[in-house]
């Protein structure tokens, strides 16, 4: 009898340990489920925050692009439009830039620049070229001399700068068009019939 009681006690103790282990297993599974739910909630929050940051970044980039564009012009007899498609839509800025403005004599001056490189450095280079050209044009320099003069002005400041430039002057009254090309791909003239 004593032996049986000892075996029963051992069995009860084993069952109690088993019950305790089962209870601990349930508790741990519950904690794991809660932790997983918390991690999932944090992941969802991080995804939402990441999307907010992407939207804010996109907004800042759009504002930057808008700030770099020349103001729209209204010139009788002309319709101006630009289509710009960046090589890398994820790059904040690049070396492709354009400018247009009306000179005091009524002609329209257009500058197209493609500075070597990508990102902010090439944007700075393109803006330096554009601003030098604008200044020279507004000072009254002839179109054919602006390219060489721009080179003379900018090379001491930035010897690494490499850019192609296309300049155009259009007289809206006569339709006369002058072009100066600094190694840029040639301009295309599309007739009304395409």
Structure description:
The chain is of the alpha+beta class and 194 residues long. The protein has helices spanning 2-68, 119-138, 143-154; strands spanning 94-102, 108-118, 163-170, 177-182. The protein has two domains: 1-68; 94-182, PPM-type phosphatase domain (Phosphatase 2c, domain 1, 4-Layer Sandwich). The chain is built from three helices and four strands. Helix 2 packs across helix 3 (143-154). The termini are far apart.
Summarize the structure.
With 194 residues, the protein is α+β, with helices and mostly antiparallel strands. The chain has helices at residues 2-68, 119-138, 143-154; strands at 94-102, 108-118, 163-170, 177-182.
Keyphrases for this structure?
rod-shaped; four-stranded antiparallel beta sheet; 194 residues; alpha+beta; 3 helices
Q: Secondary-structure element sequence?
A: HEEHHEE
**CATH topology type of the largest domain:** Phosphatase 2c, domain 1
Question: How confident is the prediction overall: mean pLDDT?
Answer: 88
The level-1 CATH class of the largest domain: Alpha Beta
Oligomeric state of the chains present here: single chain
pLDDT < 50 stretches:
none
Strand fraction: 15-25%
